Amino acid sequence: MFTFGGGYAMVPLLEKELIDKKKWLTNDELLEIMSIAQMTPGTIAINAATFVGYREKGFLGGIMTTIGVMAPSYLVITLIYHLFNTSFEHPIAQKAFLGARACIVALIGHSVWKMFQGSVKDKFSFGIFLGACILLFVFHIHPILLIVLGAVTGILLLVTMPSKIKKLLK
Amino acid sequence: MEAFSIEAIKVYFDLYFTFLKIGFFSFGGGLAMVPLFVVEFQKNGWMEPEQFYNVLSLAQMTPGAIAVNSATFVGNEAGMAVGGRLGALIGGLFATAGLATPSVICIVALSELLRKMKQNQWKQAFFFGIKPVTIALIFFAGWKIAESTFFEESYTEVHYGSIILFLIVAALLKVFDKKIHPIALIACSAIIGIVIF
User: Fold this and answer.
1) Does B143 contact chain A (CB < 8 Å)?
2) B68–A43: do the CB atoms touch at under 8 Å?
3) What's the confidence (pLDDT) of residue B70?
4) Contacts of residue B85 in chain A, CB cutoff 8 Å?
5) Is A104 exposed, middle or buried (0-12, 13-18, 19+ CB in 10 A)?
6) Complex ipTM value
7) What does the pLDDT look like over B23-45, one tens digit per residue?
8) Residue A2 clears pLDDT 50, i.e. is over it
9) How near does any CA of chain A get to the CA of B143, in Å?
10) Interhelix angle A123-137/B121-150, nearest 10 degrees
11) Where are the annotated coiled coils located (chain B) (predicted)?
12) Any CB–CB contact under 8 A between B25 and chain A?
């Protein structure tokens, strides 16, 4: 219900609900789920929800979490459609969204920092992170290409330096 | 009833299968789907590109994933044309369900595969390479939201109020971390936005 600005904005909420409260996942597992969600066809938020539900409670769990993550969108948008039709540029709504987005930037930043601390612990991971940031911010590389490059780098590292990398895998 | 006429039912299934197709062929989340949306909607006569860009900005502002929001809206619009208000509700439902179907199929298959290769070192190396990339992508997504919040479109104007609000929330998170719920923070920030901005 409270995710503005697409699938990645959901990370802080997933962290709170699934790691802090329900204790279904660790930080590193959530990162793995987000990695899977973004490279599988479909939207990231639905993929992540389906994955968590399926892992914890089987097929029915997957269906339930999927419905759970989509229901608010369906309700809110349908309501807006029928009440306001296309015009949703009301100044008060705009101000509320601006405030909410400022908060979300801080929340995402906080999540990124926690994930970084939890999963980027060696110089190889740090190198991959830094390279990915440069390719994204400076060269605007397509995310899918970046993900493929990351996977290839991981496997190449294992091939070229098996003894060093094996110690870091888990 | 017109909402259950043959013509209307045909549109509902068109919506379902169009979004199913879009879902299967889009990697990398909601925004990656936008070009496919534009082509399909025009082809089906559901929405012109300009109209869809308005929907997209609405979808980005409202809670929920962008693609789901867009699908619901377009489903409503297409359903409305053939079946009135009830048709709109059904159209939205079919479009949204179509979008979710590929996720369920792919994720279920993939989790089985991952479970079988739990201790496989190639799988582990694969994730070793991808995890830092995922963090970078989330960082980038955060930066994109920051850009659209802190600056006007052409960087000519800086919105100081939102930067100050951002700094306050960041400080609160740093100090209290697990004690405050993100939803409470978002709700308070929205109210502050209405009162002050």
Assistant:
1) yes
2) yes
3) 87
4) 82
5) buried
6) 0.86
7) 887 776 666 677 788 888 888 99
8) no
9) 7
10) 40
11) none
12) yes
Please give the Cα distance from A125 to B129 (Å, whole number).
Answer: 7
- CB count within 10 Å of CB A93 equals 18
Which residues in B lie closer than 8 A to residue A154 (C-beta atoms)?
A: 125-130
What percent of chain A lies above the pLDDT cut of 70? 92
Other beta carbons within 10 angstroms of residue B81's beta carbon come to: 16
d(CA B62, CA A77): 8
Hey, how many other C-beta atoms are within 10 angstroms of the C-beta on B2? Answer: 11
Sorting pLDDT into bands at 50, 70 and 90, what band is A133? very high
Q: Quick check: A1 and B64 CB within 8 A? A: yes
Cβ burial, residue A115 (10 Å; 0-12/13-18/19+): buried
- Shortest CA gap B33–chain A (Å): 9
- For B168, residues 6+ apart whose C-beta sits below 8 A from its C-beta are none
Place of tokens 């190889």: A124
Residue whose pair of structure tokens reads 């960041």 in the numeric block = B170
The CA distance from A18 to A14, in Å, is 6
- Residue stretches of chain B with pLDDT short of 50: none
- The residue among A11, A66, A105, A113 with the most chain B CBs within 10 A of its CB, best to mutate, is A105
Strand partners, B63: A4
Of A16, A82, A116, the CB nearest to B135: A116
Mean pLDDT score, A34-49: 86
List residues bridging with B158 in a β-sheet.
Answer: B151
Among A27, A44, A159, A169, pick the best mutation site for testing chain B contact (most B Cβ within 10 A). A44
- pLDDT tens track for A66-102: 999 889 889 988 888 888 754 556 778 778 888 888 9
Q: Tell if the CB–CB gap between B111 and A142 is shorter than 8 Å.
A: no
For A4, the 3-state DSSP assignment is strand
